[in-house]
Amino acid sequence: MADLRVTSSKLTTTPDPSGWSQVHILKSDEEKSFDSKERSGLFVVISEAGGKGAENTVAGKELLSKLQKEFFGGTIGKESESTLALLKTAVTRSLGDDAQSRGNVEIAALTLNKGAAYFVVSGGASVYVFRERNLARILGGGPQGIVSASGFPKGGDVFVIGTRGFFDTFPEEKIIGGLESD
């Protein structure tokens, strides 16, 4: 198992009539810091196309609050379910009945637990891994609904989670250039 170092960076835009996006690192009330040997926080990218400025922000905060509650509270944390199943359930439940009416919502979520990485995406969100100077898409959402994956990162891996808009705006070569200059 790789010795993982957890760091994060955020890139968002200001909510406007075209939509909004938010990036958050959610933690349970008990968590004081991230420990990749056990469990990290929940890294979340969320966006919705359309809507109105202030309403977008309120809707985003409500959705994030639901996701945090579902992931860290309720049935989350029971040993009988895998971390991947718990993460997928949390995203599904946080979208709830709004999932059909809010088909323009994208979520990408990542958590680490005992050295493994767990990902869930919905809408057009995607997850990429930057490893050994190569960027590869490992998970992408779409019309199939909520999809998930897991795996064991290698030391030096960088995960990039984002929306369709992010990856349309920043082509792979720009992302690679930014990561290589770090």
Structural notes for this entry:
The structure is a single chain. The strands form 2 sheets. A 5-stranded antiparallel sheet has the order 1-2-3-4-7, covered by helices on one side. A 3-stranded antiparallel sheet has the order 6-5-8. A hairpin with a 2-residue loop joins strand 3 and strand 4 (116-122). It contains 5 helices and 8 strands; from the N terminus they run E-E-H-H-H-E-E-E-E-E-E-H-H. The protein starts with 18 loop residues before the first strand and ends with a helix. It is an alpha+beta fold. 32% of the residues are buried. The chain has helices at residues 53-72, 83-95, 98-101, 164-169, 172-180, and strands spanning 19-26, 39-49, 105-113, 116-122, 126-131, 134-140, 147-151, 158-162. 29% of the residues lie in helices and 32% in strands.
Biggest β-sheet: count, sense, barrel? 5 strands, antiparallel
Work out the helicity level: 25-40%
Order of helices and strands: EEHHHEEEEEEHH
Rg value: 16 Å
What class would the helix/strand composition place it in? alpha+beta
Q: Please, what is the average pLDDT? A: 80
Strand content: 25-35%
**How do the strands of the widest beta sheet line up side by side?**
1-2-3-4-7
Euclidean distance between termini CA atoms:
24 Å
Low-confidence stretches: 32-37
Strand count: 8
